[in-house]
């Protein structure tokens, strides 16, 4: 169990690498892929987006835990995590560039799947160091800094693609280059504990795959934490998948691209105001569950605001409320998860399994959201479903017994 507190420089470098991951994830999902698909197939843009993001999320479901498991076995002199961060950044960047050159839905899907494979390998690398090196009493605060990068990544990406260039292909290239650049400070400037070769377990493909299963019966706290995260992230995926189209078709905003940017800035600012301060409070109190339950209710309230009020001021207010709740969630829930991992030697693999609860909803959300929007009440019904799923995820945290 780590006992030495990490420095601010270490936290900043890891946060920058994490920022690279989420910038490369969310900028295409929220902005570049919708714009590219609207150009390729305007009539079927919504369903095309669902197919592309769905297949990409399927790749993520397997790539993240597998990369984590291989990271746990890595005996490189550079450590277990840094080779995967650097290699994943390079592979993800190549995938983004290939995606930018495609002119068909299948081609875009293939490029995005490659990007997802690389970026999920990188994600496995940047997630594990908190459990590897940060003491329990510092984890929510550090997780607050790294967690903020989820929304900061989209903010930075949105700013870049709306102000620096006006071409989707150039936007992809810029995001790809920055993904690699932002990974460098952590991978080049900080060492990490090495896995001695004598401690390395045999690399057996069958055992590698079967080891991805974590028994809910033997590790119930891990299972409840996974299910809670899955539901809360499903609510988030349902609420954000069609945000650009929601602003266009329901709010009738003249400039929905800029609208997404404004909402993201409000959301991120609110999250930044709550993530680290509440993380510090959680660390000092030694309590996680009440904060997760409370923030799930706050996020559900924001979804209901979107369901009932379709004016631009109401949407902006909802973004602030949602950001405040999500800021608490990203800090405290990540700290909670690191405290229910089954074994120390499989941290990256187990965190990869947890990360399925982040990417899995991206697969399920299009299948749920498309029929709701098309046949079961449109965007208001979609956000009611979002609120219900989010609250359910918060309630399930109460089933965890090993964390207060």
UniProtKB/TrEMBL annotation:
Q: Looking at the record's lineage, which domain of life comes first?
A: Bacteria
Matching Gene3D superfamilies, A to Z?
Answer: MFS general substrate transporter like domains
List the InterPro entries: MFS (IPR011701), MFS_dom (IPR020846), MFS_trans_sf (IPR036259), Sugar_transporter_CS (IPR005829)
**Which of UniProt's keywords are assigned here?**
Membrane, Transmembrane, Transmembrane helix
Q: How does it sit in the membrane?
A: Multi-pass membrane protein
One Pfam family matching this protein: MFS_1
Q: Where in the cell is it found?
A: Cell membrane
- The record places domain Major facilitator superfamily (MFS) profile at 221-404
**Bilayer-spanning residue ranges:** 12-33, 48-71, 83-101, 107-128, 140-160, 172-195, 226-247, 259-279, 291-308, 314-332, 353-374, 380-398
Coiled-coil spans are none
Q: Which PANTHER family match?
A: MAJOR FACILITATOR SUPERFAMILY (MFS) PROFILE DOMAIN-CONTAINING PROTEIN (PTHR23528:SF1), PTHR23528
Q: What is this protein called?
A: MFS transporter
Q: Which organism is it from?
A: Streptomyces sannanensis
């Amino acid at each position: 169990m780590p006992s030495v507190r990490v420095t601010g420089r270490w936290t900043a470098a890891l946060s920058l690498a994490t920022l690279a991951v989420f910038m490369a994830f969310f900028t295409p999902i929220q902005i570049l892929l919708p714009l590219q698909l609207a150009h390729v197939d305007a009539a079927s843009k919504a369903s095309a987006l669902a197919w592309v993001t769905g297949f990409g999320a399927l790749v993520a479901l397997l790539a993240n835990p597998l990369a984590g498991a291989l990271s746990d076995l890595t005996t490189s002199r550079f450590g277990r995590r840094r080779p995967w961060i650097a290699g994943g950044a390079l592979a993800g960047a190549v995938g983004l560039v290939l995606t930018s050159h495609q002119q068909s839905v299948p081609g875009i899907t293939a490029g995005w799947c490659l990007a997802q494979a690389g970026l999920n390998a990188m994600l496995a690398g940047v997630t594990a160091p908190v459990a590897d090196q940060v003491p329990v009493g510092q984890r929510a605060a550090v997780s607050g800094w790294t967690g903020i990068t989820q929304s900061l990544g989209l903010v930075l990406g949105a700013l870049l693609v709306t102000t620096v260039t006006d071409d989707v292909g150039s936007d992809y290239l810029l995001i790809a280059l920055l993904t690699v650049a932002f990974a460098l400070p952590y991978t080049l400037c900080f060492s990490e504990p090495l896995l001695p070769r004598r401690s390395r377990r045999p690399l057996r493909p069958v055992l590698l795959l079967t080891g991805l299963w974590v028994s809910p019966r033997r590790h119930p706290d891990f299972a409840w934490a996974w299910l809670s995260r899955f539901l809360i992230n499903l609510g988030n995926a349902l609420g954000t998948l069609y945000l650009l189209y929601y602003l266009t078709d329901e709010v009738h905003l003249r400039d929905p691209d800029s609208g997404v940017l404004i909402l993201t800035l409000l959301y991120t600012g609110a999250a930044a105001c709550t993530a680290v301060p509440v993380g510090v409070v959680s660390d000092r109190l030694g309590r996680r569950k009440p904060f997760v339950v409370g923030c799930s209710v706050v996020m559900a309230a924001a979804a209901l605001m979107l369901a009932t009020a379709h004016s631009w001021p109401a949407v902006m207010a909802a973004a602030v409320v949602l950001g405040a709740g999500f800021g608490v969630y990203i800090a405290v829930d990540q700290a909670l998860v690191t405290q229910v991992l089954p074994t120390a030697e499989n941290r990256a693999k187990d965190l990869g399994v947890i990360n399925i609860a982040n990417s899995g909803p991206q697969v399920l959300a299009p299948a749920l959201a498309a029929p709701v929007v098309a046949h079961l009440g449109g965007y208001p019904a979609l956000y009611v479903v979002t609120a219900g799923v989010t609250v359910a995820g918060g309630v399930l945290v109460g089933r965890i017994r090993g964390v207060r």
